[in-house]
Amino acid sequence: MPSVLGQDTRTALVCMAYGSPRDEATIGQYYTHIRGGRPPSPEALAELVARYRAIGGSPLAAITGRQAEAVGALVGLPAFVGMKHSPPFVAETVAAVCAQGYERVIGLVMAPHYARMSLGAYEQSLRQGWELGAQPGAAGGPGPELLFIPGFHDHPAFIAALRTILAEAISERRPDRLFFTAHSLPARILAEGDPYRDQLDETCRLLAASMELPPWEFAFQSRSSTGEPWLGPDVLEAIAASAAERVLVCPLGFVADHLEILFDLDIEAQEFARARGIEIRRTASFNDRPDFVQALAEVVRDALVGAGARG
Questions:
Q1: How many CA atoms lie within 13 A of 187 on its CB side?
Q2: Buried/exposed 184-209: b ≥16 CB within 10 Å, e otherwise
Q3: Distance of alpha carbon 151 from alpha carbon 69, whole angstroms
Q4: 8 Å CB contact between 82 and 18
Q5: Could you tell me if 253 and 185 are in contact, meaning their C-beta atoms sit under 8 angstroms apart?
Q6: Starting at the edge strand that comes first in sequence, how are the strands of the sheet with 145-149 ordered?
Q7: Are strands 216-221 and 177-183 parallel, antiparallel or unpaired?
Q8: Ramachandran sector of residue 251 (left: φ over 0; alpha: ψ -120 to 50; beta: rest)
Q9: List of residues 6+ apart from 196 with CB closer than 8 A
Q10: What residues does 100 pair with on adjacent strands?
């Protein structure tokens, strides 16, 4: 694919994702990292192991690698991968990239919607790595510039890519009810003024304004049991309450196949729906589809143009 920017040997792109265990033996280590260093109970670990066994292991690391390579090729930038909860960790990747002498590092999270505890945490890890690796240049000048892209929930190219996968699924068989979903987070973020829910609503509104949709609503999925309220409604509860016979789920908060798609929707939600006589399908994941790669390239390009204007 031709570059939209021309080859730039001074700038590096770091694509970031949540991470996943490399194999079953590393699930405990991965889960402990998610919990901030606190090992999970044996029961909780066994449940997570069973989920990964059910999907045959997560493809997230491989998909993120393909996404990064494809976007990097399209925008003419060397691309690297950093993970939030599994090797290669974000901070270590960024520190190594900075040490190689790049003049600018761009951080792109493979998630469209900003929340302080999600994309904000990636930005924090990005800055930690940048501070470790950003040394003054050989002539005593400043170290590399850092540019973080805080999501792309309303970018026209992302909305267009969403329209495509929605149109494909709807044309295959029009559902009685469409559910947009994203990962639930603790409800306290609303009182803190977090933009996450508002950005999700805006993505839905932009889609509804640009295409003819079946009756639809938004619901959250994959909430955790932490002893505090999480954002709702839960998608399973919403599906049961809808009285729809044919349901389509569009997990617009996710951009790749991983546990929350392959287990929570493809196994758990399917079993839930079958027990109630409901047909449930979901839209295809973006993964490294060319239209999505093109959308990410446009996000990166626009961020670079904006940074140039500010400079």
A1: 9
A2: bbbeebeeeebbbbebbeebbebbee
A3: 19
A4: no
A5: no
A6: 79-83, 11-17, 104-109, 145-149
A7: parallel
A8: beta
A9: 113, 114, 115, 118, 185, 189
A10: none
Cβ neighbours of 224 (radius 10 Å): 12
pLDDT of residue 17: 98
What pLDDT is recorded for position 43? 97
Residue 201 tokens, joined: 């609503």
State residue 6's pLDDT score: 52
Q: What is the pLDDT of residues 188-243, one digit of tens each?
A: 999 999 999 999 999 999 999 999 999 999 999 999 988 899 999 999 999 999 99
Are 15 and 67 in contact, with CB atoms under 8 Å apart? yes
| Residue 34 neighbours by CB distance under 10 Å | 16
Token pair, residue 245, equals 């016979």
Contact criterion met (CB below 8 Å) for 161 and 291? yes
pTM of the model: 0.93
The count of residues in the chain is 311
For the residues of the chain, what is the DSSP string, one character each?
---SS---SSEEEEEEE----SSGGGHHHHHHHHTTTPPPPHHHHHHHHHHHHHHTS--HHHHHHHHHHHHHHHHT--EEEEESSSSSBHHHHHHHHHHTT-SEEEEEES-SS--TTTHHHHHHHHHHHHHHH----TTS----EEEEE---TT-HHHHHHHHHHHHHHHHHS--SEEEEEEE--BTHHHHTT-SHHHHHHHHHHHHHHHS---SEEEEEE----SSS-B-S-BHHHHHHHHT-SEEEEE-TT--S-SHHHHTIIIIIIHHHHHTTT-EEEEPPP-TT-HHHHHHHHHHHHHHHHHHHHH-
Contacts of 205 (CB under 8 A, 6+ apart): none
Which residues, 6 or more positions from 258, have their beta carbon under 8 angstroms from its beta carbon?
18, 20, 58, 59, 60, 63
Which residues does the chain have with pLDDT short of 70?
Answer: 1-9, 135-143, 309-311
